[in-house]
Write a structure and sequence with these properties.
Strand order of the largest sheet: 5-2-1-6-7-8
Helix content: 40-55%
Strand content: 5-15%
Order of helices and strands: EHEHEEEHEHEHHEEEEEHHHHHHHHHHH
Oligomer: single chain
Radius of gyration: 22 Å
Shape: globular
Mean pLDDT: 96
Distance between the termini: 60 Å
Number of strands: 12
Number of helices: 17
Length: 382
Amino acid sequence: MKKAVHFGAGNIGRGFIGEILFENGFEIAFVDVNETIIDALNARGQYEIEIAEEGKRRIAVSGVRGINNGKHPEEVVAAISEADIVTTAIGPNILPFIAPLIAEGIEARLKKGNTQPLDVLACENMIGGSSFLYEEVQKHLTLEGLAFAKSYIGFPNAAVDRIVPAQSHEDPLFVIVEPFSEWVVETKAMMNPALSLEKVHYEEDLEPFIERKLFSVNSGHATSAYTGAFYGAATILEALQNETVKEKVEAVLAEIRSLLIAKWQFDEQALVDYHQVIISRFENPYIVDEVSRVARTPIRKLGYDERFIRPIRELKDRGLPYDSLLQTVAYVLNYYDENDPQSVELHKLIAEEPIKGAISQITGIKDDELISQIERAFFSLN
């Protein structure tokens, strides 16, 4: 049986990547530091996924085990040394922390003479995740290991999309996911193109698809959350049941469409259909997705290359409208959740600093005109 090593045994790892790998005939070693989950994987060797749709269909995923990388890093290295594929779903900020283990796994493959091509895919909510991971891994490779990696180890970028809401169950392995899923892999960096996974889409150039997803799903979902919060909604479904919120989300997606068409020549009707599907996913009545979950870490979401500021910058550069996105940024700046450290930090910064300075510091924007536009949008709410 083919062997996979997957970093991150959380809901997305089990409920999305794990399901796809299982359905493609892989035995999966989940790597994580969560002892409860790792122990349960080893005790049972299987878990269940529920699809959030009418009938609540369930999928049993078997042939799984867990490795605690905090306690048994040598087991992770051994697993990588014989793996057919390595994947991650741990969060962009954690990638540098697993890079040494992946490097050791590559060195172990070199030592045992395993020249079977291996692809390492960072399935993260970021642009260029696998490329970033490769940069981190290289820091820990010997010269021989680096030469080996350049010949036999690929780090193809990937785009992934599936809503997995925050949830808690008596069974620590059980996970509920939406019916929709999309996993796109960039072929030009693959070392093992012969290993083609069912339910995974392969593209020579991934960037248009990553931006389509980031600017559509991420921007649209976050707009639903921050706008919904402003109008008093507790869940995404409740937010979109408010016609004002829904109209604002649709207006943001219309601006996103204009950018994607101008930049990547996407077909307009295809994008309209794609965005209608996205909104229907947000409105799934079988998913309870808290506004607080989607809106968390607002400072990160206001980053220079993130889901709001980057499309605003690029629309401005092209002379295209971005008023709805500006208003959403104002909703983010207005958002407050005492249980979210970044929200508290954002609220404090805005209270203590001149607003223009706070906007520049948070977003990284140096364009005075754009900063002033954001400032006016913010004060229009207050």
